[in-house]
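ugh ok so i messed up the first submission bc i forgot one of the chains. this is the corrected input, ALL of the components this time, i swear. 1708 residues overall. if the numbers dont match what u have on ur side tell me asap before i send this to the collaborators (the ones from the other lab, u know who)
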Amino acid sequence: MLWIDCPWCGARPETEYRYGGEAHIARPDPAATDDAGWADYLFMRTNPKGVHAERWMHREGCRRWFNVLRSTVNNEVLAVYPMGAPRPDVPGGEAEGG
Amino acid sequence: MAEAPATPRSPLAGLAGALAGAQAGGVTLTERPARARLNLRLDPEDEEALAAAAAVLGAALPLAPNTAASAGDRTVLWLGPDEWLVTGPAAEADMLTGALAGRHHAITDVSAMYATLALSGANAREVLMKGCRLDLHPRAFAAGTCVQTALARAQVILHRSGNGQTYEITVRNSFSVYLATWLLDAMAEYRPA
Amino acid sequence: MTKFSIFSLARNALSHHERWPEQWRSPAPKPAYEVVVIGAGGHGLATAYYLAARHGITDVAVLEKGWLGGGNTGRNTTVIRSNYLWDESAALYEHALKLWEGLAQELNYNLMFSQRGVLNLIHNVHDLQEATRRVNANHLNAVDAELLTTGQVKAFCPILNTAPTTRYPILGGTLQRRGGNARHDAVAWGYARAADARGVDIIQNCEVTGIDVEGGRVTGVQTTQGAIAARKVAIVVAGHSSVLAAMAGFRLPIESHPLQALVSEPLKPVLHCVIMSNGVHVYVSQSDKGELVIGAGLDPPNSYSQRGGLHTIEDQMGALVELIPIVSRVRMMRSWGGIVDVCPDASPVIGKTPVENLYINGGWGTGGFKSTPGSGWVLAHTIATGEPHPLNAPFALDRFTSGRLIDEHGAAAVAH
Amino acid sequence: MNCRLESGGRIDRTQRLRFAFNGRRYRGFAGDTLASALIANGVHLTSRSFKYHRPRGILTAGAEEPSALVQLGEGARTEPNLRATQVELHDGLVAAGVNAWPSASCDLAAWTGRLAPLFPAGFYYKTFLWPASFWKAVYEPAIRRMAGLGRAPEEPDPDIYDRMNVHCDVLVVGGGPAGLGAALAAGETGARVLLVDEQPALGGALQGLRHRVDGMDGAEWAQAAAARLAAMPEVQVLTRTTLFGYYDHNTLAALERRTDHLGPDAPAHLTRQRLWTVKARRVVLATGAHERPLVFADNDRPGVMLASAAQRYVNHFAALPGRLPVLFTNNDDAYEVAHDIVAAGGKVLAVVDCRPEPAAPLAATLKEAGVALYTGAVIAATHGTRRVQAVTVAALGEDGGLGGGRWRIGCDSVLVSGGWNPAVHLFCQSAGRLTFEEARGIFLPGEATQALEVAGAAAGSFGLAACLADGAAAGARAAHAAGFGDGRAPPAPPSDAPEPGAIAPFWLAPGLKPVGHGKAKHMVDHQDDVTAADIRLAAREGFRSVEHVKRYTTVGMGTDQGKTANVNGLAILADALGKSVPEVGFTTYRPPYTPVTFGALAGRDRGALMDPVRRTAMHEWHEAAGAVFEPVGQWHRPWWYPRRGEDKHAAVARECRAVRAAVGVLDASTLGKIDIRGPDAATLLDRLYTNAFSTLKVGRVRYGLMCGDDGMVFDDGTTARLAEDHYLMTTTTGNAAHVLEWLEEWVQTEWPELRVWCTSVTEQWATLALAGPKARDVLAAVAPGLALDADSFPFMSVREGTVAGVGARVFRISFTGELSFEINVPWHHGRHVWEALMEAGAAHGITPYGTEAMHVLRAERGFIIVGQETDGTTTPQDLGMDWIVSKKKADFLGKRAWIREDNKRADRKQLVGILTDDPKVVLAEGAQLVDRPGRPPVPMIGHVTSSYMSPAVGRSIALALVKGGRARLGEAVHANQAKKFVRCTIAEPVFYDPEGGKRDG
Ligand SMILES: Cc1cc2nc3c(=O)[nH]c(=O)nc-3n(C[C@H](O)[C@H](O)[C@H](O)COP(=O)(O)OP(=O)(O)OC[C@H]3O[C@@H](n4cnc5c(N)ncnc54)[C@H](O)[C@@H]3O)c2cc1C
Ligand SMILES: NC(=O)c1ccc[n+]([C@@H]2O[C@H](COP(=O)([O-])OP(=O)(O)OC[C@H]3O[C@@H](n4cnc5c(N)ncnc54)[C@H](O)[C@@H]3O)[C@@H](O)[C@H]2O)c1
Ligand SMILES: Cc1cc2nc3c(=O)[nH]c(=O)nc-3n(C[C@H](O)[C@H](O)[C@H](O)COP(=O)(O)O)c2cc1C
Ligand SMILES: [Zn+2]
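and heres the new structure output, hopefully the right one now
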């Protein structure tokens, strides 16, 4: 069971959240995006083995979305930061592949 | 032509008998009567809106997460950074709407959306621990704490109210029979044979 | 390859089993191969085997970062069936199922392939509509399938609780009698032995750390045992697909998740088929050794940790004891996790990549064990001829660009 | 044979208990385990091993027991595979050894053992291949008959289980000297401490030892410590509780056995077992160490037992494991066992020590007491069948083989000690890394990756004084790290135990014949019958990874997970491969530490509580009216309301006719309702729906389709504009939560600039759909204040008013094609308004109708149901709903995807109607459509999504998705269902009132 700090409500168990997948995937301008670009946005994911920037939503609580940096190797949470904020630099944040 | 009934029908009406039998032993369970309720949304940075709301409610909106404020028979529960649940006298909606006119806000009447159960007694915390993953120890969950969380398989608002002897569990109507049944089941071991 | 049989067992018993040869060699890598297959799971090994056995390409190395068969092949719940919804999937999985039916003899390795029947339970009207649709499609695709009533379900598997009073009553089921289980480890070992016998080098403890690409064409790989040149390279690494793709400079429509499974203590046989319920999220069978082998849905967050949370197991056991109340006092003996590579349409990716001569086979998610022979077969064809086999052509990467997805969520649902 | 000592031990001799084992009656005392009681009765043969059905006895005294497995109890409460060493005795207990028929002493399947030469590790992969057809018919059934150990019950479990979630500052696992020290030290700081131990009493190894702590008997000291802990308000102690899983983020899980030890006296209101999930700031693992057996020829006969287990049986249970034991060891500490036996009045025939010159301080004392000492020697053979009767002791030669001497010693038990394995299971589960210590041949906890400490024997401190000190230090450190105390360890109590003595790791004793030759078995895994020869065979066959060897031989894969077998096994493997032990490494440790009951994992989520049943405000009315309920997600919705003698078909037909002819009422409360407010509400809706909502006038309602950005339809519903900045959206029942999340996700993550709030009001409003030509009359009767004529209240508009005295919102929308009002009233009044409508409509024959009739009615009009006409691969265009796709809006979710290649295909599946040639035939939903019947494979062109007998049309109707279907109206196709073909014609998907004239009444 992962325990993740909701920026508002504090530490809550994984079961209270909805996992929202990779963070920082902006929706491209549809008019200026070709099919490959659209496929990229819809489906292609970095899926790194290492630090992953991802989104979570506190579904059972305050219902806020926020971002998390988490190691997909050992599930350690390295940072929690608001939607829209840039990905923080954390030590050991190198991902294998990606 | 049909008149409106004097009292609203509780979604737990069918469990009245079972609840009546849950008034003794290490833990008791009671349904709270329905009250008027509002879901209030406003921007927590909007000082004027906060002040206007506080003026109507007689209490400042709690800004600290997981807390509640009360004034008289009115309570305001923090639900999110821009969301509160106000329980109090009816007709408040109009006053609030008036006070907040011109400010970005939303007031939604949710008076009929929930049932509230009160769990008290020496073993109340233990009963909750069977279904709630949060730390309910008084050091972490002082009197006055109010959280939205999961209890068993229902989403609830859990408020350690008053002097801390009672946990008020507010649950959406459709889940209320399930949750009350679950609680009665979890309480069984503390009830007199 | 020494032939395995009761006679060879008896003969070797006389020499105290001290003369058995290695089932496969542990060679040092050569500097170059015609084909390098990355990943010695069932799929990679089957690919190498069919390259050698069907296409005469024996200058093949299978590179494995750990021990062969130690990925998902060694940790899956071994459900085999072919009753998929869409034509493309049914064709691929049915091809695999046909291969399973003769595989033990072909490999001279007892894979304990057991066609005991796979029963998918129906719990609501929506399930029933889906099931009917799938069963009828299976018939027309010449895949065996039956739609059972609740009574027929009970007769086929008496330990199921079919009472109408349960929280999610069983309204019926679909049955594929040709479906079943196989002994997962044996599949890897059988393919490894047969591929090795045909000259394939299986190199364990050899992690690929880089993929060499020149002018858009693959030229070899970097490994923990040094550089290895290759004319063609195939990525067959299941949960690690994205990591390898990144080495070659592209991304995939794949995310890696923990998928857990568990076994009970060994019991005298009580369950004689495979039970799957997408409605309440659990599936179970009993191994030939006696453990109940139980699986469920995946843990949502991406992870390569090969572990998940107990809450997932708690939910799945709640569902299981509802379905089969007599196992309530049975005990969980071991639980574990794998890393499954999930595609958005719950169908795999098999074919070419943006890099020339670099092929990929991945994205099988929670259900690729059953396809092991078929998947190896079509990938070997693709590598040998440079063009996809008709069976895997629809599973190309470009379907994500064109939009022609093969959405098997209904058929794949929970897992397996 | 009575092997109970006259005095001593900690059993309660005042309470005699009767029990039955393998069909015979015995007596024991309160405080006994089943194993200790059997030993006291001289019973060693308990059960049979897995593969060769060899006789098996009691090897250990604890959780690590591999072989004394029993089927406990009978009937619905029987339980398979329990370790006799952990079963607490209660009066009337009944048990039998597993895997034996008819009995453990005379087991018919023992022939498998005689054929053992044919059954080496992995033999089944090499045979049963020919003839192929025999596998299914003969071989597999035969193999399956041999499978398994115990039996599952045949009846449902009468007991109940539950779950408890607890948080603490310091979790201490293990209540031995180290764990007690840790809990006391941490508890004194005021930290919240949880101490768990799997045994009935605290004290751990102290219970088996005679050492004194703080001037008291060790076990007494442990009781005193327990009393001190009990007095600390923030300390909780759970005995009979096994910490079985160490998961991520310091989340752990434990199983408490609450009533098992009470037997039939267990109070019915208590749950049998409880699953604890613990979230701990810091963890102290003080799980002790397991003694490891020595591997020698036929070391698995009943009567062979771990030395420390024997010591515990003597000291704690006052039961002698044998009258004539021989001790076999590679270390000094085991001499203490012989000493304790002698001190208790027992006898020890000999000590066999594989080391040339043991320096055990007790050696001399033992010699004086008449114990023969064989040094530089091993046990080379054991003799006897159902119990050891003799051993052959042989001198070790220079080369590691046998040297000159041979001594046959008649004996009835063999006590073995091969050193100690720290219990690192939980540490490894936590993802900590192990290191290997050559000198003692042990794996030790190395670097931790979670917030934990390891103390005592688990950390390799085998001396009592060190354990006490270690524990206190770890407890203080852990508390400090959690924010309590200064981190300094309180002084540890003094003890009289000697420092641990010397040990020489020793992995495999040579036998009289080379390992694997002859009949003798060097057993490594006592449960699964894995021998040293098997491990060597695996290595020889190319299985070099320890993980391969595990899977090929099944070493460590039994119910004990190799607690006594694994380290010996991998050392033997290392030797076979010419590698060092750490080079070979160990297999992955996984939860659970010991097996966990399924029922306990399921907890309270059983039966009706397995998942909530969601109920509407009118649920009880529906129940009283005899409704049959349809499960839709978690909701239970009235499906139809059968009257006496009616079947489903008749009831649904009647309900449909009532709506078409007069008036019906449906409980539609389960539809999702979302209140959307703010100046940008219109913008948000324009982006989410395929059509425009900014152009919707206040007071009006519009139907919308919602697509993902992949262009596929995922929800639909009507949305009303209640004010300029206020909309009320409805969603499908199943998607209500999902759609709210969808809105919130876009607002919070992609378009945070939008000023809009979305609030679920699904359960604020009960929704009653009143439909039929008489709907207006009925509503008028209860809502006199509302102007209901078509001009004042046009189709697709909303009004506020009073219905049956209750403030309501009324929507004029129609899912049936009839004149229809959807009345929203506060949930609390839903039942009242429903009854008022029933009363007001009685004159018109108002009929409650369920979801099935609703489905028929909407299908007659060709209205889709998302999830039925769509399957995640369907676009609005496929549904023939291009009319609802805005051509003006620059962008909205889904739009971009439709210009992809696949969406231009002419053969996309499109929604059409299907009419069977025979109007009485109702197709199955899910029937497949083909152009021409034939023998499979037959290409499919589509499938039936909805299909009903339509009372209004007077025939069967169906909707289907058909490749290029819109262009094929009127063409013949064939539906395949249950392997038959039914001829049909493709038609328009609207079967009734195509002009829509009826919606105004
Ligand atoms: C718990 C669980 C239950 C499942 N149940 C079923 C089921 O019932 N039925 C079913 O059909 N499917 C099931 N599956 C899915 C199935 O196991 C997989 O789809 C299938 O085994 C994949 O086989 P593979 O050969 O592609 O992958 P794997 O067996 O995972 O092999 C990939 C190999 O690649 C290696 N590798 C990775 N990176 C590198 C590198 N850089 N260099 C070298 N080697 C590398 C890995 O070590 C691994 O050995 C289940 C999966 C899990 C986890
Ligand atoms: N060479 C030797 O003679 C030798 C070797 C090892 C240990 N010892 C002695 O053993 C004692 C070791 O003390 P200690 O405190 O480290 O260990 P311990 O063995 O005394 O206590 C460990 C306790 O933890 C319990 N436990 C283990 N795993 C558990 C789990 N997963 N869940 C719940 N409970 C669990 C055990 O049942 C036991 O009660 C000392 O007295 C030491 O001298 C002696
Ligand atoms: C079908 C199947 C049956 C298994 N049966 C057993 C078993 O009887 N005993 C056991 O200890 N493990 C069993 N396992 C689990 C393995 O021990 C192991 O946990 C799994 O292969 C994953 O590897 P890992 O735990 O080493 O990561 C089984 C695994 C599978 C896939
Ligand atoms: Zn929150």
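quick check: Residues A 6, 8-9, 58, 61-62, 64 surround zinc ion (ligand 4) (CB under 6 Å). that seems consistent at least. The first helix of chain B runs from residue 16 to 20.
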